[in-house]
């Protein structure tokens, strides 16, 4: 399927999925089968199935998703790169409120993210 949407449009669509709590659905819609995802300097997790499993592991400790705040987005359509800064809050299964801030660099090809690296404290 040929993508006609710009990267900026796809990023906005992705953010909409996340705002609705549709994390796994977003991965299936916006991430390429060969996706490589990396946290800071850790080894990347490669492949959509492996990354969905990793995300499900994270979501298993989320009792309630409170909010996501998108604070900055920059897109270079020619280079296929999006940089996004955001924060989110959730209540974990121990009833603790967690606020998390991070930035991500995404590399897009044909409307799908092929590589993503997260930067956080």
Keywords:
121 residues, alpha+beta, Nuclear Transport Factor 2, Chain: A, 6-stranded mixed β-sheet, 3 helices
* C-alpha-based Rg, rounded: 14 Å
User: Kindly state the mean pLDDT as a whole number?
Assistant: 95
Q: Span between N and C termini?
A: 38 Å
Task: Provide the β-strand percentage band.
Answer: over 45%
Can you list the strand order of the major beta sheet? 2-1-6-5-4-3
What is the string of SSEs from the N terminus onward? HHEEHEEEE
Describe the structure.
- It is a single chain.
- The chain is an alpha+beta fold.
- The protein has a single domain, classed as Nuclear Transport Factor 2, Chain: A (Roll).
- It is 27% helix and 50% strand.
- It is built from 3 helices and 6 strands, in the order H-H-E-E-H-E-E-E-E.
- It has a 6-stranded mixed sheet.
- Helix 1 packs antiparallel against helix 2 and helix 2 runs antiparallel to helix 3.
- The model has no long low-confidence stretch (mean pLDDT 95).
In a few lines, what is going on in this structure?
With 121 residues, this protein is α+β, with helices and mostly antiparallel strands. 27% of the residues lie in helices and 50% in strands.
Write the layout of secondary structure elements.
Blueprint lengths: L6 H13 L3 H8 E9 L5 E2 L1 H12 L2 E15 L4 E12 L4 E13 L2 E9 L1
């Amino acid at each position: 399927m040929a993508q006609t949407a710009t990267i900026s449009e796809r990023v906005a669509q992705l953010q909409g999925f996340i705002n609705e709590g549709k994390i796994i659905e977003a991965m299936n819609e916006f991430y390429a089968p060969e996706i490589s995802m990396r946290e800071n300097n850790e080894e990347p997790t490669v492949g959509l199935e492996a990354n969905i499993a990793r995300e499900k592991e994270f979501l298993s400790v989320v009792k309630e998703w409170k909010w996501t705040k998108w604070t900055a987005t920059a897109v270079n359509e020619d280079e296929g790169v999006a940089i996004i800064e955001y924060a989110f809050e959730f209540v974990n299964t121990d009833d603790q409120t967690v606020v998390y801030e991070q930035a991500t660099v995404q590399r897009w090809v044909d409307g799908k993210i092929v590589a993503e690296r997260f930067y956080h404290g």
